[in-house]
Specification:
Number of helices: 13
Strand order of the largest sheet: 2-10-9-6-5-3-4
Pfam family, one: DegT_DnrJ_EryC1
Number of strands: 16
Radius of gyration: 21 Å
Helix content: 25-40%
GO molecular function, one term: transaminase activity
Number of domains: 2
EC number: 2.6.1.92
Family: Belongs to the DegT/DnrJ/EryC1 family.
Mean pLDDT: 97
Structural class: alpha/beta
Cofactor: pyridoxal 5'-phosphate
CATH architecture of the largest domain: 3-Layer(aba) Sandwich
Length: 377
């Protein structure tokens, strides 16, 4: 039997037609489909601005640039995330300060984050682990009291809401990922969304080499009609029109994707409830997550055995994530294991089960039977 992946894109004929139409048009990149996609993403996020980019990692790098992060600044974030959440700030010269997580959700603990804040902290970056929104009210309050920016890494959570408010409207600046395993895809891609005109302007400049084309802002506007200037360095993170068109098509099905993920989660929750030593994902009051992952937690001393049994049974499970500061790049900077014990315990117990809209009821039952066999119930 074929391996069942832990995540997979959902592409239909409308998606194919949208991409094909662009390939037959006059634009492949930086054209009308990018504008259309950005408008649709901004509307979904409930904010004025969306800046499309080439990946979720690029979105983080751009967001930290928009926040003005530079050498000597500190960014407080979670270790229970893909390394890009920290790397995006480190690449701007920031010192990364890791704070521990909530044992129930895996999300950054607001109290731990506040304890890590110093007078050099510029940003607190919280991740919606598995699609569960962070405690946005607590982080907004922290930001207001300490004068720091609240960045929400929503790579897992486009389509999630908290108290009825969409992820994208909760933080000062929010980043999305549109990788194939995420809640919708542009193949590779991402976006930065914000209500702030200033942050959006800085994000848009950084993702396009820092180019200034507005003559009112140029230092030498009389050079000629061809003239453009770079006032601060940036990079090329422009999302092509062909991928933006795919994203716009995918957005029309986001609600259906979220609904199916919720059905899969409910089936898993029912099947695994009450098993000794096993924890199913926790959902805080007011949260309506778009579950990107299904993080099942099993006894730490049996995690590898259970993981390998599932792989042998054709279930393509994954582990999310190795604590970011365990990576040698952080180890070589002096970070040590043990500094965030709750996150490390979460990691040692976590296995991500298959979670994507294309899972059939038969697929879900297959996963449940495999997990039951691996655990021994």
């Amino acid at each position: 039997m074929a391996m069942l992946p832990y995540g997979r894109q959902s592409i239909d004929d409308d998606d194919v037609a949208a991409a094909t139409a662009v390939l037959r048009s006059d634009w492949l990149t930086t054209g009308p489909e990018v504008d259309r996609f950005e408008a649709a993403v901004a509307a979904r996020a409930g904010v004025a601005h969306a800046v499309s980019v080439t990946s979720g990692t690029a979105a983080l790098h751009v967001a930290y640039a928009a926040a003005g992060i530079t050498s000597g600044d500190e960014v407080v974030t979670t270790p229970l995330t893909f390394v890009a959440t920290a790397a995006g700030a480190a690449l701007h010269g920031a010192k990364i300060v890791f704070a521990d997580v909530d044992a129930r959700t895996g999300n950054l603990d607001p109290a731990a984050a506040e304890a890590a804040v110093t007078d050099r902290t510029r940003v607190v970056a919280a991740v919606d682990y598995a699609g569960v929104p962070v405690d946005a009210a607590a982080f907004r309050d922290l930001g207001a009291r300490k004068g720091i920016l609240f960045l929400e890494d929503a790579a897992h959570s486009i389509g999630s809401t908290l108290d009825g408010v969409p992820v994208g409207s909760l933080a000062d600046i929010t980043t999305y990922s549109f990788f194939p395993t995420k809640n919708l895809t542009t193949a590779e891609g991402g976006a930065v969304v914000t209500a702030s005109d200033e942050l959006a302007t800085r994000a848009r400049a950084f993702k396009n080499h820092g180019l200034v084309r507005d003559k009112a802002l140029q230092r030498y506007p009389d050079e000629g009609p061809w003239h453009q200037e770079v006032h601060s360095f940036g990079l090329n993170y422009r999302l092509p029109d062909v991928l933006a068109a795919l994203g716009t098509s995918q957005l029309t099905r986001l609600d259906a994707f979220v609904a199916r993920r919720a059905e899969v989660k409910a089936s898993y929750d029912t099947a695994f409830a009450g098993i000794d030593g096993v924890d199913t994902p926790f959902v805080p009051a007011g949260a309506s997550p778009a579950f990107h992952l299904y993080p099942l937690r099993v006894p730490a001393d049996r995690r590898r055995e259970i993981f390998e049994s599932l792989r042998e049974q054709g279930i393509g499970v994954q582990v999310n994530y190795i604590p970011a500061y365990w990576h040698p790049v952080f180890e070589d900077l002096g970070y040590q294991r043990g500094q965030c014990p709750v996150a490390e315990d979460y990691y040692r117990r976590e296995i991500s089960l298959p979670m994507f809209p294309g899972l059939t009821d038969g697929d879900v039952e297959r996963v449940i039977e495999a997990v039951s066999h691996a655990i021994g119930v």
